[in-house]
Amino acid sequence: MTIPVEAVGLVRRFGDIVAVAGVDLRVEPGEVFAFLGPNGAGKSTTVRMLTTLLAPSAGTARVAGYDVVTEAAQVRRAIGVALQDAAIDPLMTGRELLRLQAVLYGLPRARAEARSAELLERVGLTAAAGRRVGKYSGGMRRRLDLALSLLHEPEVLFLDEPTTGLDPTSRLNLWDELRTLNLEHGTTVFLTTQYLEEADQLAARIAIIDGGRIVREGEPNRLKAEVGAPTLRIEVRDAQADVARTVLARFGAERPDRAGVLAIGLDGGAAEMTSVVRALDEASVVIEHMELNAPSLDDVFAEATGRRLEGADGDAAAGPGATPGEPAA
Fold this sequence. Notes:
Blueprint: E1 5-14, E2 17-27, E3 32-36, H1 43-50, E4 58-63, E5 66-67, H2 72-78, E6 79-82, H3 94-104, H4 109-122, H5 138-150, E7 156-160, H6 168-185, E8 188-193, H7 196-202, E9 205-210, E10 213-218, H8 220-227, E11 231-236, H9 241-248, E12 262-265, H10 273-282, E13 287-293, H11 297-305, H12 314-318
Parallel strand pairs: 3-8, 3-9, 6-7, 7-8
Antiparallel strand pairs: 1-2, 1-4, 4-5, 9-10, 11-12, 11-13
């Protein structure tokens, strides 16, 4: 059976900057695979290499059984691609764009019309098909982009940050469409995202990338289980932070978190909460907020990189491991 996506030692340099530093990947047939990481981590650069838009500086990759360098034309015909920065002509209607896409892929007219109608119905754009795309909302544009990428029934679908900027309802609707696409049609999906919940909800396997390198890979539940202890977070007065940190160290190893929050992996779990509160009280520490959370993908990322992914927004939030030479993704 053909492996949908396979990469070995994939590298991409931009001058002196190494945006992707030796990525190894394998995506199985019919799988939803999520590439999770902050902006600037190397996600989009990797996708651009896998979709033949960028040539690798080193390493090899095969998509749908074809080499992305020597068999680029075959790769392009076998894949569907919806990039974060995809250009859609705002003066054309949704139906006109689908017709144009069909011509580019050489679909017979009758098949193209039937397929376009089917996809417009599936993504909920039948009523808006005759409207200029410039009048579409952000969610409608993303759904049209998905329809365009599926028109020729690709073997592998690449989605680069498909829900960035969408409102919560539009995001959930797109998630439902991707589940249907995968479960009912068996489409292999390669998804890049910086949203923890998105990767957790949709993907059978994930790879966490940071600084151009994969730092964790596996099934979400297994990766979370490997973190072990739940995360205890507390907030105290600034003047008491050092004392509180010393007390908490008796109950588990410190974990990175946002400024103003002290966090540990609470080795004894919920059963130790009373002991923690008592110890902090004995040290005269006033607790302003306390919560205990089961291991999450954010904890997996934190354990692998020493910082949190949650709430990452832009290169500054991506932290010291971000790769400044990569196009924002």
